[in-house]
Amino acid sequence: MIGPAVLDVLCPMHLTLNASGHITHAGPTVAKLFPFRPLVGERFLEVFSVKRPKSVVSIADLRRASQVKLHLETRNDHRTELKGEMVPILDDSGSIIVNLSFGISIIESVRDYRLTNCDFATTDLAIEMLYLVEAKSAAMEASRKLNQRLQGAKVAAEEQAFTDTLTGLKNRRAMDHILGRLIKGTDPFAVMQIDLDYFKEVNDTFGHAAGDHVLQIVAQAMVEETRDSDTVARVGGDEFIVVLPDIQSHETLLRVGERIIKRLEVPIPFNGEHCRISASIGTVWRHGGSKTTMEALLEDADIALYASKRAGRACQTFYTPHLRDAVPTDVSLQTRDARA
Q1: Secondary structure (DSSP) of 182-220
Q2: pLDDT mean across residues, the chain
Q3: Angle made by CA atoms 91, 7, 99, in degrees to the nearest 5
Q4: Would you state the pLDDT for residue 156?
Q5: Number of neighbouring beta carbons within 10 Å of residue 251
Q6: How far apart are alpha carbons 134 and 223 in whole angstroms?
Q7: What is the pLDDT of residues 61-107, one digit of tens each?
Q8: pLDDT at residue 297, rounded to an integer
Q9: Measuring CA to CA, which residue among 211, 247, 205, 208 is closest to residue 226?
Q10: Catalytic: which of 124, 197, 238, 302?
Q11: Which of these CATH numbers, 3.30.70.270, 3.90.190.20, 3.40.50.720, 3.40.50.10860, describes 172-326?
Q12: Catalytic: 91?
């Protein structure tokens, strides 16, 4: 007869039962399933419940289940499902050997009982499966991290594509996207086209570094004087557009324009000098449900801005159709000399 020491190596999850069904020997791995419960001397059916065949309710039934796959469950906190096979020992003792395996529960069992490859026979295919699962987990984790990096890079690239690098504001591309979405809807919104007065003099007098500094201060001021839901975009050298969704009153637009104009009239220090500018604003308010196009909307805002320039600058003009009568027909709206 093969001794217990040999079986512990070849079948570390085996149990030897005597004729009465008591455990007389437990392999080292199956013993780890019950670390605080010595198995020797315990009745097998009090340590394991037989799920199938359902007819096995006694040791006599177990003996008759020779060469039948047993479906078992541990009677411990983890309730681990096991597969088993019973083989009678061919002597007069009436003893039997039950060899167990984890089956599909091996992953959870390795975790729950802190098992290693040393707890399995070297020929056990469970080791190969564990290696495959570990390799798959490592590959999936590497794939997850790669996807996260790619997603982060994509978000960063998209954000950069919609951002003005000098001021950190949205750029024209972003403004077109936001404005296009609002135009397709039916909610009221407004557009302010803002041009800096005397900005050319700042560049000519103090240099482009001063001009860049002024643009950054202007950008910060516009963000602070508008709502979080508004979009401030730099669409040209000293040209800005503010998109204001959900505008319900003319007075709201008046207050926003007045705050921006007042804020930008404050001299901006630079290298011991003071840069003085102001802001001219042309505003278009699209009431809910009215139809327009982006080109028409921006042209109306540009006409209103031109009217503010003609009125002496540092003011806000709301678009009305009669303003078109004052627009020179031989001058492009985008290149009028009035923008200084």
Answers
A1: HHHS-S-EEEEEEEEETHHHHHHHH-HHHHHHHHHHHHH
A2: 88
A3: 80
A4: 64
A5: 8
A6: 51
A7: 888 887 789 999 999 988 999 999 988 887 777 889 999 998 878 88
A8: 94
A9: 247
A10: 238
A11: 3.30.70.270
A12: no
